[in-house]
């Protein structure tokens, strides 16, 4: 595998003639929406949780958690806060993820948690945690906190600088005006007052030797009983330090809290009006829930905005996409109470309504939002699109763009999808609950049980596989479904009597159901194959669903492979 594929740079726009009409439709929709004076949430659709944002001049950058996926730490760029382009990854080389930072056999929902991105003196910094549970279950889970740096946000990014002796998760890096650099982290206190209590701590960082130094200071256990106080970020405004944290867990009670101090080491005074952003006071059926884990950014003109995760409640308060990145405006207000001897300014998130809205006035009236719910790759270049991800660091040689020019060749390794496993599976994030996904595949296997096709997957034990498999002399089209705690089940299976080596898969999600089709005549007509409900790969954890391609020898070594000519995806927002 050529790891340089993930070093960033410009990505090509690709399409297939089958989708030209869809493309024109999407362009028309984008143009129509661009005439409005509002933007739509989420600003990053698909599984992009735990957003952290920074500004460099007139450029804005967001990094998100990526957990067990590789490449890790996706980075988006924007000029206007509403139109975002994926420009690279912080972890884009195998060498970064095969040592102390282990993404090779990491457990599901382990891996890279809650990064912070900052910029200082010509250099970008990302600080984050890798959560790894050893295969030996008698050993404790490892929390490896580390920093990576780059001169250009697209990369290349450095090897991880591990900070020894840094307990807990969700680190923040803060550059003070006096030149000192501070680490703010989360851990469980030695003597918690109740189960789930978290504590925020502070210690100085030596960036020359990549070590913590000096005394550790314990800052705050949160505003409302401190259940799961985590995700800290430090800011300085008008000479005062503001400590913003997440609290309440990552679901319905998730919230954003803030405290202030005249000294970086405290004591910190909690805002009487905490939480400053939450959906815990709203109906479970609100269009978005679990809002929290936020970061703030100041614009050049002095205005502020907040990015936060949230879960769209498309299906029974959940969605396949899981936690996505949303944005609200922020204004600072002074406490009006005359009886207080000391008054503080506090950030007020979404000041008009106090919640994340589907539509919000544009940050810049001359920069309308153009929603991009279309993805296509026809594999004509020398690199796959940046959107492609693998579950863990991929096996060597699972794919090639050179073996057959203009195609993605996916090799059928003996490995199958399983917990902590690696196989010939790659995909991109599902962006909307309603969508159309199709892929053109040439597959002429020689070995028994060789299999290839497309996949819709949420986790190692929760997925659909829509494939062709060789069984003796027959080639069969098969749809299987796997969910946690049960063996995979066959939804439908059919021997392909007229199959000539090429097939187009199509899945349409509409009206809370998935409809599966196939074509044997290059898309001139499609044949219905199966139907399932759309709630089978809902996100119950940290990650969102992916749509992708898959090949396997099902436990047998083989030289078989599948050639994919193109993949196309169109998402259709429900509002």
The average pLDDT is: 93
Radius of gyration: 24 Å
| Morphology call | globular
Largest sheet: 8 strands, antiparallel
- The parts where pLDDT drops under 50 for at least 5 residues are 1-35
CATH topology of the largest domain: Tachylectin-2, Chain A
Fraction of residues in helix: under 10%
Assembly state: single chain
Strand content: over 45%
Q: Can you count the helices?
A: 1
Structural class: mainly beta
Q: What is the architecture of the largest domain at the second tier of CATH?
A: 5 Propeller
What does it look like?
With 575 residues, the chain is mainly β. The chain is 3% helix and 46% strand. It contains one helix and 39 strands. The strands form eight sheets. The chain has an eight-stranded antiparallel beta sheet, with no helix packed on it. The two termini are 40 Å apart.
Short description:
This protein has 575 residues and is mainly β.
Task: Set out the fold topology.
Layout (H helix, E strand, L loop, with lengths): L19 H15 L3 E3 L11 E5 L2 E5 L5 E2 L1 E7 L6 E7 L19 E10 L2 E10 L9 E9 L10 E2 L6 E7 L5 E7 L11 E8 L4 E10 L9 E8 L2 E8 L7 E7 L7 E2 L6 E2 L9 E11 L5 E9 L10 E12 L10 E5 L9 E3 L12 E4 L11 E3 L7 E2 L7 E4 L12 E6 L5 E9 L7 E9 L2 E10 L2 E9 L6 E7 L6 E9 L2 E7 L7 E7 L12 E7 L8 E11 L4
Antiparallel strand pairs: 1-24, 2-3, 3-5, 4-26, 5-6, 7-8, 8-9, 9-10, 11-12, 12-13, 13-14, 15-16, 16-17, 17-18, 17-19, 20-21, 21-22, 22-23, 25-39, 26-29, 27-28, 28-39, 29-38, 30-35, 30-39, 31-32, 31-38, 32-33, 33-34, 35-36, 36-37
């Amino acid at each position: 595998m050529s790891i340089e594929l993930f070093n960033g740079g410009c990505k090509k726009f690709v399409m297939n003639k089958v989708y030209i009409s869809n493309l024109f439709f999407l362009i028309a929709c984008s143009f129509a929406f661009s005439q409005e004076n509002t933007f739509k949430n989420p600003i990053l659709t698909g599984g992009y949780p735990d957003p952290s944002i920074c500004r460099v001049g007139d450029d804005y950058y967001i990094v998100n958690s990526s957990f067990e996926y590789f490449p890790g730490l996706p980075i988006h760029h924007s000029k206007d806060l509403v139109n975002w382009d994926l420009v690279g990854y912080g972890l884009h080389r195998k060498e970064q993820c095969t040592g102390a930072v282990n993404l090779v056999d990491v457990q599901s929902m382990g891996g890279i948690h809650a990064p912070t991105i900052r910029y200082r003196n010509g250099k970008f910094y990302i600080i984050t945690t890798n959560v790894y549970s050893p295969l030996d279950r008698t050993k404790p889970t490892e929390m490896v906190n580390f920093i990576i740096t780059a001169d250009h946000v697209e990369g290349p990014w450095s090897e991880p600088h591990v900070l020894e002796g840094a307990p807990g998760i969700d680190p923040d890096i803060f550059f003070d005006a006096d030149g000192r650099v501070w680490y703010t982290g989360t851990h469980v206190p030695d003597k918690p007052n109740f189960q789930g209590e978290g504590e925020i701590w502070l210690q100085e960082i030596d960036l020359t030797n990549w070590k913590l130094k000096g005394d550790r200071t314990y800052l705050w256990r949160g505003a409302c009983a401190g259940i799961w106080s985590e995700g800290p970020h430090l800011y300085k405004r008008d000479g005062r330090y503001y400590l913003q944290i997440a609290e309440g867990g990552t679901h319905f009670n998730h919230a954003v809290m803030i405290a202030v101090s005249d000294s970086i080491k405290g004591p910190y005074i909690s805002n009487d009006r905490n939480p400053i952003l939450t959906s815990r006071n709203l109906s479970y059926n609100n269009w978005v829930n679990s809002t929290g884990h936020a970061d703030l950014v100041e614009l050049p003109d002095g205005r502020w905005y907040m990015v936060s995760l949230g879960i769209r409640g498309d299906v029974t308060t959940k969605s396949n996409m899981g936690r996505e990145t949303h944005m609200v405006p922020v204004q600072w207000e002074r406490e009006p109470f005359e009886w207080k001897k000391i008054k503080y300014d506090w950030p007020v998130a979404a000041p008009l309504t106090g919640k994340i809205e589907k539509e919000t006035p544009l940050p810049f009236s001359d920069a309308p939002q153009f929603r991009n719910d279309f993805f296509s790759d026809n594999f004509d270049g020398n690199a796959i699109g940046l959107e492609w991800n693998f579950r863990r660091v991929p096996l060597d040689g699972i794919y090639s763009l050179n073996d057959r020019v203009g195609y993605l060749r996916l090799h059928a390794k003996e490995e199958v999808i399983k917990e902590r496993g690696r196989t010939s599976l790659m995909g991109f994030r599902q962006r909307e609950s309603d969508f159309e996904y199709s892929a053109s595949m040439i597959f002429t296997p020689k070995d028994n049980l060789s299999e290839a096709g497309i996949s819709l997957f949420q986790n190692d034990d929760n997925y659909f596989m829509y494939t062709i498999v060789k069984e003796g002399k027959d080639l069969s089209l098969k749809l299987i479904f796997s969910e946690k705690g049960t063996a995979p089940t066959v939804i439908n299976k059919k021997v392909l009597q007229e199959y000539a080596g090429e097939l187009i898969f199509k899945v349409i999600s509409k009206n809370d159901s998935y409809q599966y089709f196939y074509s044997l005549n290059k898309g001139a007509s499609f044949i219905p194959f199966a139907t399932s409900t759309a709630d089978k790969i809902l996100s119950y954890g940290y990650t969102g669903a992916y749509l992708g391609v898959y090949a396997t020898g099902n436990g047998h070594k083989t030289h078989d492979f599948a050639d994919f000519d193109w993949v196309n995806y169109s998402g259709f927002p429900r509002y």
